[in-house]
Amino acid sequence: MNASKQCSPNPSISPCINKNGLVLNVNPCICGNSIFGVLTCTANQYCSNSAATPCSNTQSLVGCIDTTGLVLNTTACNCGIISCTANQYCNTSSITPCYSPLVITCLNLTGSIINTTACNCGTTICTANQYCNTIKATPCSATSNQRILVSNCKVLNGKTINTAPCICGNQTCIYFQYCNNTSSTPCNSNPNPTISNCLYTTGYNLNNEACLCVSMICPEKQ
Q1: How far apart are CA 33 and CA 8, in angstroms?
Q2: 8-state DSSP, 48
Q3: Are 8 and 31 in contact (CB under 8 A)?
Q4: Res 147 pLDDT > 70
Q5: pLDDT by residue (tens digit) across 176-206?
Q6: Cα 79 off chain centre by
Q7: How does residue 5 score in pLDDT terms, banded at 50, 70 and 90?
Q8: Which sign, positive or negative, has the C-alpha torsion 7, 9, 15, 20?
Q9: What angle do CA 164, 168, 169 make, to 5 degrees?
Q10: Which residue has the higher pLDDT, 10 or 96?
């Protein structure tokens, strides 16, 4: 036997003429590869030489137009050996090649204004036209979710803790969080911006700004 020839299931059957999974082969033919194996497709089957299942009764998906993960593919497509559904990103260099668009944070997180698009409400994703209140046990609701009135945070500079839930910019801070209404992440469990060491540490002079005194945070005017 010639060592350069690949063994096939049936030597009398020729390789498939159409191997991209898009055009039907009207006669039985050989289809496959050295990774997933070589099979004999029956008459009127599609052959996709690079697929894990080379022979199929249905037409294969075309390759994704974008495989970098930067542009949304609006139709179902092949992303390497994985099939993405419509409106997914494809990144052939990723462990999870197909993934759906990222959901943005809800514009209103206090339950007082409806969000017209799907969005992240804390760790929950609200669907379009729902209210989001991040301090509720059930954050997403079809009706107004602001059952507990929350006032604006008293301290907005991110340096002094707020002891009760309060509104900071477009977010609702929970108990014992810092609020910086000029930050892209207004509510934090730690000071934002980071607090510097106290300028005066002898106890004789007043520190105008909140500051770090050894391992404790002194509020303003202490």
Answers
A1: 11
A2: E
A3: no
A4: no
A5: 888 988 888 888 888 776 667 788 887 778 7
A6: 18
A7: very low
A8: negative
A9: 165
A10: 96
Which residues on adjacent β-strands are paired with residue 39?
31
Distance of CA 73 to the CA centre of its chain: 16
User: Structure tokens of 62?
Assistant: 């075309």
Mean of pLDDT values over 19-33: 87
Higher pLDDT, 208 or 55: 55
In the chain, domain spans: 7-60, 61-102, 104-147
Instruction: Tell me the range of 29-33, 56-60, 197-201 where mean pLDDT is highest.
Output: 29-33
Task: Give the whole-angstrom CA distance, residue 116 versus residue 61.
Answer: 33
* Residue 41 tokens, joined: 């497709």
Asked if 30 and 13 count as a contact pair (C-beta separation under 8 A), the reply is yes
Give the per-residue pLDDT at 32. 83
What's the start-to-end Cα distance of the chain, in Å? 92
**C-alpha distance from residue 76 to each of 5, 51, 87, 90 (Å):** 36, 16, 7, 10
3-state helix, strand, coil in the chain (%, to 5): 0, 35, 65
What distance separates the 2 farthest-apart alpha carbons in the chain? 100
In whole angstroms, give the CA distance from residue 6 to residue 35: 13
State how far the Cα of 189 lies from the Cα of 205, in Å rounded to an integer. Answer: 28
Query: What was the pLDDT predicted at 68?
Result: 86
